[in-house]
């Protein structure tokens, strides 16, 4: 039988990207965290961490993290969460992998459920890769663009976040852009190295991909950079409707758009609190997503 203090030490190291911050989170010393990880490895007879910077779970470590997430769900369902300050206050801690644009637009309203208390810990990644956090057992919930379910998990469709290619009038003037072909010598804004939205859209509607790129891993920063004329790129309708109406941004391909389909992933051992949250989010998403 596992000592769950050891599993929570592993979770803390992965979630906090290192032993020092894990120790702060658990209110123990860094050496105590290291000792718990060694004890866990001795119990199962193999490493649970690759001691890189930041540490990464081994396949065995990922299976243990998945197991821990499912146990946390069962404890919550049975009202058995103990030894945790938030649990004593009837607050369910929820670690969630989510894409930045959802977090910057529709999701905060959808997560507001007055009759339930949650403490959210958001892990922000591009929707194309965030499912790996679920596969590795690092999160309770994941919002991503894949409907592929992980072992022990389920998914439900939320809707589509609609994106359009836009730029500021100042940007178009400064770069002498009068037709689609002119875009390929101008800078394009891209969220991060996993983000292929701009590339896929331009390949479909302009037969080429952007090469001159600014990397901007911030949803609001992305919008501000676009308004400032740093580059063109793809933004969701929910972020640009006002700017389009006021003329601050120009739709570069009127009538053309790209829909990113989003799914809510959760564990089969879902607690009543997370079931209520999921149902509320699914209902709320209908008001914002396509």
TrEMBL record:
Xref: InterPro entries: ArgP (IPR017685), LTTR (IPR050176), LysR_HTH_N (IPR000847), LysR_subst-bd (IPR005119), WH-like_DNA-bd_sf (IPR036388), WH_DNA-bd_sf (IPR036390)
Domain HTH lysR-type, residue spans: 2-58
Single Gene Ontology MF annotation: DNA binding
Presence of keyword DNA-binding: yes
UniProt keyword annotation of DNA-binding present: yes
Keywords on record: DNA-binding, Transcription, Transcription regulation
Family, similarity comment: Belongs to the LysR transcriptional regulatory family.
UniProt protein name: Transcriptional regulator ArgP
